[in-house]
């Protein structure tokens, strides 16, 4: 009988119907989500995948892809640098909230998403969704099945607070502030505390309200408040590795995983392989990722970067939107797209010049390649500070870039063996885990399917109010008690003083 039950459970898991909603328009982030979807499909699950970058893999028969590539239009309309910058709350409200609202409504209005909305309640067994897209949490109300949230980078403070994780603006400043920890500078502490006490009310009373209002237009007025839906989520995954980690405590249903999208590099095209093999002095590889495009970089910064690269005694492979550029140095080879993991795996690569995005940082770590980081936005500042403090990188801020500074920094990292040795040491730490992040996520997905949720992992700290969490009610009772005690004691003392004075007066009269 027990074997029969086990067989039925395994059968249910192997044939689960999973809705995966990952519409964020960034191919580097999509690599993480693709890996999860592909692995679930390979394990026999039927996966509906909402993505702006549909895969062309005919072997994966049980994946239905919903194309929301229209989301890429958002990058043409918004200043993403300010959309992910918390140092100015007003800019963040204006840029970020406008970006996310338009992006989500654009995705929901696509025909494929409308088809999902028309499906009956019993269409799926599990929903996967990005943590940064609260509107899509409404699908949990629509289909009444467990939901798991996945973030392709570290979790921001509001997610930690909603899930009941300890939140402390000095011990754990928000990753978007870019501070390394622990905070020792008083001005940084003040800024982090100020941002926290402004950021959270904005999220709770402005952003969440707007998202809830939007969600009701798609999922109905009977939907619970959007934040309450998220609170009841089964699990949350953040892509956080021990090299770039906050080292913060987590409640049981929040998991930090890494090594999700990293695979054995593919064979390099013969043209690129020839360039790498024949570079006598070695190769410098430069890429600013997929979100920081050179066409958006200021002209003087582009010129300084190219001049610095031209003065290097190395062959330079550079991912650039154009394969020709006025004044391009002879040693610089421009390509619109380059197979980054395969290039970084080549032993002739001496330095990787990067914007410091998480996926690029992980690919550098796993190949033991030292870095020169030019951070532009989001978590890139945090990654840059952490990798520099770990000894495998040097950081040059965009506003500080000059031809001489960038050239000298690259030469320093390329010629000092300590950077490569430290990169190799961090690679060993990164890879030393019982199973990969991808295996971890898939196991927990099937765990949630088997048990129809994971409410038993939920922390009680997620359910108590702000004043209860910080024990303000207890503190109020203590203060009131102390105050009343003080008032009573004062009255008693006054009465005693009057009585003593009265007795003294009577004795004087008698004498």
From TrEMBL:
Signal peptide interval: 1-15
Places the protein is found: Membrane
Catalytic activity of the protein: glucuronate acceptor + UDP-alpha-D-glucuronate = acceptor beta-D-glucuronoside + UDP + H(+)
UniProt main location, coarse: membrane
Pfam family, one: UDPGT
Keywords: Glycosyltransferase, Membrane, Signal, Transferase, Transmembrane, Transmembrane helix
Protein's name according to its UniProt entry: UDP-glucuronosyltransferase
């Amino acid at each position: 009988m027990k074997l029969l039950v086990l067989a039925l459970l395994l059968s249910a898991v192997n044939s689960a119907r999973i809705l995966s909603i990952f519409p964020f328009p960034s191919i580097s982030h999509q690599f993480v989500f693709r890996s999860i979807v592909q692995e679930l499909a390979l394990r026999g699950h039927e996966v509906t995948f909402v993505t702006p970058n549909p895969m062309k893999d005919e072997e994966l028969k049980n994946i239905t892809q919903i194309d929301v590539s229209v989301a890429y239009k958002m990058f043409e309309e918004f200043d993403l640098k300010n959309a992910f910058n918390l140092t100015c709350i007003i800019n963040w409200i204006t840029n970020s909230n406008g970006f996310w609202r338009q992006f989500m409504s654009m995705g929901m209005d696509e025909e494929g998403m409308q088809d999902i909305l028309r499906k009956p309640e019993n269409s799926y067994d599990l929903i996967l969704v990005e943590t940064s897209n609260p509107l899509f949490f409404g699908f949990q109300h629509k289909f009444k099945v467990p939901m798991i949230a996945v973030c392709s980078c570290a979790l921001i403070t509001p997610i930690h607070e909603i899930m009941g994780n300890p939140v402390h603006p000095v011990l754990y400043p928000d990753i978007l502030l870019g501070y390394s920890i622990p905070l020792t500078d008083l001005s940084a502490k003040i800024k982090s505390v100020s941002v926290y006490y402004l950021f959270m009310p904005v999220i709770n009373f402005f952003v969440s309200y707007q998202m809830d209002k939007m969600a009701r237009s798609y999922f109905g007025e009977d939907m619970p408040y959007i934040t309450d839906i998220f609170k009841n989520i089964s699990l949350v995954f953040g892509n956080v590795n021990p090299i770039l980690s906050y080292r913060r405590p987590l409640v049981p249903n929040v998991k930090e995983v890494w090594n999700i999208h990293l695979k054995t590099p593919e064979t390099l095209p013969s043209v690129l392989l020839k360039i790498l093999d024949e570079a006598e002095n070695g190769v410098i590889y430069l890429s600013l990722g997929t979100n920081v495009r050179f066409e958006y970089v200021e002209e003087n910064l582009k010129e300084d970067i190219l001049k610095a690269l031209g003065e290097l005694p190395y062959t330079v492979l550079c991912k650039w939107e154009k394969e020709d550029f006025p004044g391009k140095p002879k040693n610089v080879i421009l390509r619109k797209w380059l197979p980054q993991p395969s290039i970084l795996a080549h032993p002739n690569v001496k330095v990787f010049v990067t914007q410091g995005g998480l996926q690029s940082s992980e690919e550098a770590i796993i190949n033991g390649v030292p870095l020169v980081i030019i951070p532009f936005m989001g978590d890139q500042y945090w990654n840059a500070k952490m990798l520099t403090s770990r000894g495998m990188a040097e950081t040059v801020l965009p506003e500080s870039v000059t031809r001489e500074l960038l050239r000298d920094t690259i030469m320093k990292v390329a010629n000092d063996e300590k950077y490569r040795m430290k990169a190799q040491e961090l690679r060993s730490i990164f890879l030393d885990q019982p199973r990969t992040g991808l295996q971890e996520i898939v196991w927990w997905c099937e765990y949630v399917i088997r048990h129809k949720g994971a409410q038993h992992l939920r922390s009680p700290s997620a359910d108590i109010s702000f004043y209860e969490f910080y024990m303000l009610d207890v503190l109020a009772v203590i203060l009131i008690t102390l105050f009343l005690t003080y008032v009573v004691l004062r009255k008693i003392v006054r009465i005693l003083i009057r009585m003593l004075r009265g007795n003294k007066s009577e004795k004087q009269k008698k004498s």
